[in-house]
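User: Could you write out the 3D structure of this protein bound to zinc ion? I've included everything you need below.
Assistant: Certainly. Input first, then the structure.
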Amino acid sequence: MEPINEEFARAEIIRITQIVTAQGLVRSNDGNISVRLDEDRFLMTPSGVYKMTMEADDLIVVDWEGNVIKGRPGLKPTSETQMHLEAYRQRADIRAVLHAHPIYATSLTIAGLPFPMDIIPEAAIGLGSVPVAEYATPGSRELADSIQGPIRQSKNIILSHHGTITAGNTLEEALIALERIEHTAHSYFVSRSFGEIVPLSEEELGKLQIIGRKVRGEV
Ligand SMILES: [Zn+2]
């Protein structure tokens, strides 16, 4: 595994955090971001720090158990550290994990609805599938356990009544997936307020899935 430069990763987490916060995909000190630096080290956002004012030095390096290897005194890694580590345990193909609280995607699960994969071509192509993990208490071991099956199935999942996890080779990839999920859920909400949903045909979805597997590098 090629190590990722720590200074670059710190700057990248700050950059992506600013974008995610400005777009309202997280609020106040919600959400958390990590980057896998190498085989055994992960860079995590700290717990309880307001995202818009978070600085590169606030980020914390942890090991596979979540023990702090490097961090400023008084700061602890995110309470969702175990959830991030579980994502890396389940998928050797990801280097970045973004957990956010997008309103429309989360609200789908509050209404008991699955993610609508059959309404927008870009979602079918770019995301493949977006499974929903069963609800578990934020910050708990149960939450980390709840993502095991879904994250194996897809890099991009929704946590019931809570938010999303999007993952990728880079943070930008995770950000693009997050934006795509929220845009699709938002479109679904607006379409339903106009009237009945007319989904894409099975035939068209089949075509989009073939294109998607190529685009996502799965074939
Ligand atoms: Zn959360």
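The chain is about 40% helix and 15% strand.
User: Perfect, thank you.
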